[in-house]
């Protein structure tokens, strides 16, 4: 039974926008029981489909901030989205837009957490920059800490 989903938003062919791909690969290498992973492009319909029928969704995405601190990890609810942050992906709408649409349709999970990693480069190309690559284990640890103990509520972790 799937109790939670980790949704990676990004594109590995746009440098640091591929951070979610790296996080999902690490999670898939040592799966968390009852947690599935999904890679999507960040469009609202794809996000709504990915987090439907679970109580907890964790979204990992790259963001661009001004001023930037590449590799800095923001952990928040969508209401606490990093100030001055915009999605690094090429998707036209972002996670906050998907949440607004989901709320209107009654399709938002009870718990929705976003891990946003500040990107340095999102142009065409493969491979993460060193600062963003160094953030991958931090995000993986944070996701495991949040979801890794079935039956334990997030408030007690």
From TrEMBL:
Record keywords, A-Z: Aspartyl protease, Hydrolase, Protease
Entries under Pfam families matching the protein: HycI
GO MF, one example: enzyme activator activity
Keyword Protease (UniProt): yes
Any one GO biological process: protein processing
Gene3D superfamilies named among the record's database cross-references: HybD-like
Superkingdom of this protein's organism: Bacteria
Keyword Hydrolase attached: yes
PANTHER family registered for this protein in UniProt: HYDROGENASE 1 MATURATION PROTEASE (PTHR30302), HYDROGENASE 2 MATURATION PROTEASE (PTHR30302:SF1)
NCBIfam families named among the record's database cross-references: hydrog_prot
Family affiliation: Belongs to the peptidase A31 family.
Name recorded for this polypeptide: Hydrogenase maturation protease
